[in-house]
From TrEMBL, chain A:
Gene Ontology cellular-component terms listed: plasma membrane
Organism of provenance: Lacrimispora celerecrescens
Entry-linked Pfam families: BPD_transp_2
Membrane topology: Multi-pass membrane protein
Signal peptide: none
Biological classification of the source: Bacteria, Bacillati, Bacillota, Clostridia, Lachnospirales
Name of the protein: ABC transporter permease
Coiled coil, from the record: none
TrEMBL record, chain B:
Single GO term (MF): transmembrane transporter activity
Regions that span the bilayer: 12-29, 49-72, 84-101, 107-129, 141-165, 185-203, 282-300, 312-332
Organism: Lacrimispora celerecrescens
PANTHER family for the chain: ABC TRANSPORTER, PERMEASE PROTEIN, GUANOSINE ABC TRANSPORTER PERMEASE PROTEIN NUPP
Record's protein name: ABC transporter permease
InterPro entries on file: ABC_transp_permease
Keywords: Cell membrane, Membrane, Transmembrane, Transmembrane helix
Gene Ontology CC, one term: plasma membrane
CDD domains: TM_PBP1_transp_TpRbsC_like
Pfam families: BPD_transp_2
Topology class, membrane: Multi-pass membrane protein
Predominant location category: membrane
Location in or out of the cell: Cell membrane
Source species taxonomy: Bacteria, Bacillati, Bacillota, Clostridia, Lachnospirales
From TrEMBL, chain C:
Keywords: ATP-binding, Cell membrane, Membrane, Nucleotide-binding, Repeat, Translocase, Transport
SMART domains per record: AAA
Name the record gives this protein: ABC transporter ATP-binding protein
Keyword Glycosyltransferase: no
Alphabetical list of InterPro entries matching this protein: AAA+_ATPase, ABC_carbohydrate_import_ATPase, ABC_transporter-like_ATP-bd, ABC_transporter-like_CS, P-loop_NTPase
Domain ABC transporter: 6-241, 258-502
Length: 310, 343, 512
């Protein structure tokens, strides 16, 4: 086995490439988490977005329209969850799983009935999100390998991470959102409409989740398959836990999964059975989750300890 | 009004709403919903084979819905039943193929015990992570489902492969007797029914059941009165896992006769749906499982005799669960009554 | 223009089956301090929360400055100049003091927050009232007294001219209370109108201009301070004359049943960490722990009961070391425990009275046969306890969900007292229960002591500590600051010790 081939410069982009859909998903989960809502439905929102993006891109020939409709589709799914949870007091995990199953079923149904396919939809008519070639980088060998030919939504995710961070910690809205999440009564007595804040958080989460799906089907790949998110939404949720809903730490967590995924893909070339490669990101996600929670508990314990110096 | 009557009423209303929304989808693709539902019912009940098939898909759902409910009683949201079915199945297959030195009845029992043990140990992982490190069991079990699927898929396409085109294992040497042939309904149905009745008894009549309910409703109180929430949580998760493993074992020994790759897809999530819709009520869960089994087994017939794809059934069940989780839906009358009373 | 700033008429409010306010009346004049008094559960807090728009009213009308306001939200209340300092502080722990103060009314630079402007505005109010507040600290780093001042500043920066204070002194020492009263009087001088909710009659008599009394959700009457007396107020509050001071039974203390030796325990907050506490309780005596809430009492009790890990030191129950034992084993060693929070600890509200009464004996004879529970035995036992402890309603099969505070607490007391251990730990045993239940619970504690159990009593109510205890220890910031015999203790010397001793009390006194 040639380790040099596995850990080459191209691994950097490969890692980022596999991580991007998960970063979008994680940001989708982080926004609601700041309002103390666990967005288990991320997976379903994302899957719906992925389907809508491909279908619209194929039918209209416009990737941009595909992305916009995907975000609207994500918004609709998120709002079903929001109304169920806030207005009708549905337990968030239960309705989140409901949304996931609904997304799985409805995309399958529409794939069968509207597009007349089953399993996979991969037509030349699908217009993917364009990639950007930066001519000045073409001359620099090292940077070229890392930064050349990125998809627009791959550049955009970096903007989005910073944007979300800015909104959380620098704006009025972010302060209110965090107050709602940490102590809703305090927010309420400050004249903030807690439910309306939660609705807005879930709505924005839906838009980002839809975008996550659009990137997956039109940027990361150029097709739609049944259950194509394949637990990426849940990995996003796990990364969100890992980063404590802080956008930058959360994104960093996603890179770990991306790295495992790309190393695995390379190992496959050396005869490691594909199933064992495919399960690696899941195992790493669980391990990361466990370690981050355990260390968080250890920190808390230390903070509460009477023996530590104040 | 009686609480039970009220909840049955709510479930029926929810069911109607889900079917109505399903009808809208069917209309949307230009088909007649009544015809489609009629075809669905015929597909589930018309003839011995169809009834048998319905009962065969009812069997695992009985156990998986019960498995989800048992964990839920202790406050766990065990999405991992599906993975437990897979691992139970593969264990049963391994034992059933290789331990032929045991006499058949013993081998049968060992298959069940092995399947249940491995599945219970699998459930132990998320249980411990949650109890001791507060790691969300929802996240962990979902991710572990994928891991279980890949592990079993690897085993049946590699070390345990039968060497045929499909990824599947060699046939097992013991089988649960089938009846109503050529459908695949088998003695597992009775094992499942007895198990569910037993679980209802355990949760309602025994000390262990009381402890599970205490932990599930108020862990802080449980700890204070001397019931360890961690211990009980872990025990119910393992019990839940064992029930999932049993479902996997029945599928392998009773339905297929070998381990077929990805055979359990949807068994866990449909069981979870059945349980969630009835708010984890162990007595209602079997009825809901039966309803879902009817939908599932009738779907193929519907697809064949009308132009409605069978995926509409999954859509209807998903709508069903979304509507069912909304606690306050269908309570308009109550609210009105209360207001009048207070005045 | 009406003579009243606030007029609340014929207010009705219920939560589910609980009628919190049946007939609420309240008026507030400009520039007065108006006390609203009543027992726990009389509806006084609910009245003020309705005024602040926390919940909608079922019936009645509210006028602010003479205008009828059909539906109020906190936002509207704030716009109308109403501010409220809640009993439980409405402060977000993870945010800074400044962020908490401006929350909901943030000065902006476009979409971002203008912290400089915010700081200037807030500091202006801080200086005006000479308060000691550090704006940069996070809420979990400041003291209770400071948090309360933050709450007052919060209402002022939002432009409140009516300030409601919901039991503000419950978390303060007598000395801190005096400082608060100085602030309140200054606010009145500046023309603010204040509502002071309390059930402490001496404080009410000291600070108020007018006093309104509520009982069981009903408005009883209003009096001006000059025309009334504590005795009359008490009668209005309770509806009859009550003498809570029970004759203390004298018993000769026996062997040590509890020994706490140099114990260190982790705490939720810095000041509630237990740092080297030692105390003992003998059979047949009541030892009272006095202290302001949150100074480590809860942590100490949890440590004794095995619900929180002892980091250093040892606890002996009847001579047996408790270190490393589970809560169950500690109960077996002879612990009975009335916890401070009956809703999350003491009871399982989703279960019946019957099931709650045997909660600590589940799986033990005679309440089970093998692994199966014995419902008949359980019911028999529950019926018996309901009778003895006068739990109403008498039907043990009903859920504890609907029980009143007093009856719910009686279920806990009945269970813990009936198992008959060596030591009874009673934490806030009469908090939030009606006067009848207070009387009977205090009587039960006396009987338990007379039977030879040791009792460790924790209460934030000094009167309760003084009337029941044989010995008193005072806790402050996780340490014991004083040990007194009951006959040497009074509200003044306990109050000083609760603040951390005489010396520090004088220091604080000189800064104001």
């Amino acid at each position: 086995m040639d380790l040099g081939k596995i850990f080459s410069v191209s691994l950097i982009y490969a890692t980022f490439r596999s991580a991007t859909p998960i970063i979008y998903a994680a940001l989708c989960a982080a926004i609601t988490q700041q309002a103390d809502i666990l967005n288990i439905g991320t997976e379903g929102i994302m899957l719906t977005g992925a389907f809508a993006a491909v279908a619209v891109s194929y039918l209209t020939g416009s990737w941009l329209l595909g992305v916009v409709v995907a975000m609207i589709a994500g918004l609709i799914m998120a709002m079903i969850m929001a109304v169920g949870h806030i207005r009708y007091k549905a337990e968030i995990c239960a309705i989140g799983m409901g949304i996931n199953l609904f997304a799985l079923a409805i995309t399958k149904f529409l794939l069968n009935s509207a597009l007349g396919k089953s399993g996979t939809f991969s037509e030349p008519g699908i217009i993917a999100i364009p990639r950007v070639s930066l001519p000045f980088l073409a001359k620099v060998p090292f940077l070229k390998e890392i930064f050349d030919n990125w998809c627009i939504t791959e550049w955009f995710v970096i903007v989005l991470i910073i944007l979300v961070w800015f909104v959380f910690y620098k704006t009025v809205w972010g302060l209110r959102l965090r107050a709602v999440g940490q102590f809703p009564m305090a927010a309420q007595t400050a004249g903030i409409n807690v439910n309306s804040m939660k609705y807005r958080a879930i709505a924005i989460s839906g838009l980002i989740g839809g975008l996550a799906g659009a990137h997956l089907s039109l940027g990361y790949s150029k097709m739609f398959t049944e259950n194509m998110t394949n637990a990426r939404g849940f990995m996003g949720v796990a990364a969100m836990y890992f980063g404590g809903a802080h956008p930058i730490l959360t994104a960093a967590g996603c890179l770990v999964f991306g790295l495992t995924d790309s190393i695995g893909a390379r190992l496959q070339a050396y005869g490691v059975p594909s199933q064992l490669v495919l399960l690696m990101p899941y195992v790493v996600t669980i391990a990361t989750l466990a370690v981050s929670m355990a260390s968080k508990m250890a920190r808390e314990k230390k903070k509460k300890s009477a023996l530590a110096k104040a | 009004m009686n609480v039970a009557v009220k909840s049955i009423q709510k479930i029926l209303l929810t069911m109607l709403l889900a079917l109505a929304i399903g009808a809208l989808f069917i209309l949307f693709i230009g088909e007649n919903p009544l015809e489609a539902y009629g075809a669905l019912l015929r597909g589930a009940f018309n003839g011995k084979l169809k009834i048998g098939t319905t009962l065969a898909s009812f069997t695992p759902l009985l156990l998986t819905s019960c498995a989800f409910a048992v964990a839920a009683k202790a406050g766990a949201f065990n999405v991992g039943v599906e993975g437990e079915v897979f691992l139970g199945g593969i264990t049963a297959a391994y034992i059933g193929i290789n331990w032929t030195f045991l006499p058949a009845p013993v081998l049968m029992i060992v298959c069940f015990l092995g399947a249940m043990t491995v599945a219970a140990l699998w459930a132990l992982i998320p249980a411990v992570l949650k109890a001791y490190y507060r790691v969300s069991e929802v996240c962990v079990t979902i991710l572990m489902n994928s891991v279980a699927l890949y592990i079993t898929s690897y085993l049946v396409s590699g070390p345990m492969s039968a060497g045929v085109a499909n990824a599947q294992s060699l046939p097992v040497t013991v089988n649960l007797p089938q009846f109503m042939k050529p459908s695949s309904v088998n003695a597992g149905l009775f094992i499942a029914l007895i198990t569910v009745v037993f679980m209802i008894w355990v949760l309602n009549k025994t000390t262990f059941g009381y402890k599970v309910k205490t932990v599930g409703t108020n862990p802080s109180h449980a700890e204070y009165v001397g019931i360890s929430p961690k211990k009980i949580f872990i025990q119910s998760m393992m019990l839940s896992g064992a029930l999932g493993g049993m479902a996997g074992c029945i599928e392998v020994l009773g339905v297929h006769g070998y381990f077929l790759n990805n055979f359990a897809a949807g068994l866990g999530s449909n069981g979870m749906l059945a349980s969630l819709i009835v708010k984890n009520n162990l007595i209602f869960a079997p009825f809901m499982s039966f309803f879902l089994a009817v939908l599932k087994s009738g779907a193929m017939g519907m697809q064949q005799s009308t132009g409605v794809p069978k995926s509409i059934v999954d859509t209807i069940t998903a709508v069903f669960i979304i509507v069912a989780t909304m606690e306050l839906l269908f309570q308009f009358k109550d609210k009105k009554n209360k207001k009048e009373k207070s005045k | 223009m009406s003579e009243y700033v606030i007029e609340m008429k014929d207010i009705v409010k219920s939560f589910g089956n609980v009628h919190a306010v049946r007939n609420g009346q309240f008026t507030l004049k400009k520039g007065e301090i108006h006390s609203l008094i009543g027992e726990n559960g009389a509806g006084k807090s609910t009245m003020m929360k309705l005024l602040y728009g926390m919940y909608p009213i079922d019936d009645g009308s509210i006028r602010i400055h003479g205008d009828h306001i059909p539906s109020i939200s906190p936002k509207i209340a704030i716009e109308k100049g109403i501010g409220m300092v809640h009993q439980e502080f409405m402060l977000v722990n993870e945010l800074t003091v400044l962020e908490n103060i401006i929350l909901g009314f943030e000065p902006r630079h476009g979409i971002t927050i203008d912290f400089d402007k915010a700081r200037k505005t807030v500091e202006q109010y801080i200086n005006q009232y000479g308060m000691d507040i550090q704006l940069g600290k996070k809420i979990n780093q400041i003291s209770v007294g400071e948090a309360q001042r933050v709450e007052i500043i919060k209402t002022l920066t939002r432009g409140a001219n009516v300030i409601i204070l919901d039991e503000p002194t419950a978390v303060l020492t007598p000395q801190e209370t005096k400082q608060l009263f100085v602030i309140l009087q200054n606010l009145r001088k500046d023309g603010k109108s204040l509502v002071f909710i309390s059930h402490k009659l001496n404080e009410v008599m000291e600070i108020s201009d007018r006093i309104s009394v509520m009982r069981q959700g009903n408005y009883i009457g209003s009096v001006s301070k000059e025309e009334t007396s504590p005795a009359e107020l008490a009668k209005m509050m309770i509806g009859r004359e009550v003498f809570l001071n029970i004759e203390k039974t004298q018993t000769k203390p026996g062997e040590k049943v509890l020994e706490v030796k140099d114990v260190w325990v982790s705490g939720e907050k810095e000041i509630s960490k237990i740092r080297g506490v030692s105390l003992d309780v003998r059979a047949g005596e009541i030892v009272g722990i006095a202290g302001i809430d949150g100074n480590g009492q809860s942590e100490l009790i949890e440590a004794i009961a095995g619900l929180r890990q002892v980091e250093k030191g040892s606890v002996l129950l009847d001579g047996k070391e408790l270190g490393g034992l589970s809560p169950k084993q500690i109960r077996k060693a002879g612990l009975s425990h009335i916890p401070e929070d009956r809703n999350t600890r003491g009871l399982n509200r989703s279960m019946s009275i019957k099931e709650n009464l045997i909660a600590v004996q589940v799986g033990e004879a005679p309440f089970c046969k093998g692994v199966v529970r014995d419902d008949k035995e359980t019911l028999e036992y529950a019926k018996q306890l309901s009778e003895v402890f006068d739990i109403r309603p008498r039907d043990p099969e009903i859920s504890t969900q609907s029980l009143s505070g007093g009856n719910a607490q009686k279920v806990v007391v009945a269970r813990e007292v009936s198992i008959g251990g060596k030591l009874l730990v009673a934490s806030q045993p009469t908090r939030g229960v009606d006067i009848g239940a207070i009387e009977s619970i205090r009587k039960i504690l006396q009987e338990v002591k007379a039977k030879g159990m040791g009792v460790l009593l924790v209460s934030a109510d000094l009167e309760e500590i003084l009337s029941l205890s044989d010995r008193i220890v005072v806790m402050h910031e996780g340490r014991i600051t004083g040990r007194l015999k009951a006959e040497d203790a009074n509200e003044d010397n306990l109050g000083l010790l609760m603040m951390g001793g005489t010396a520090s009390a004088e220091e604080r006194g000189s800064t104001t």
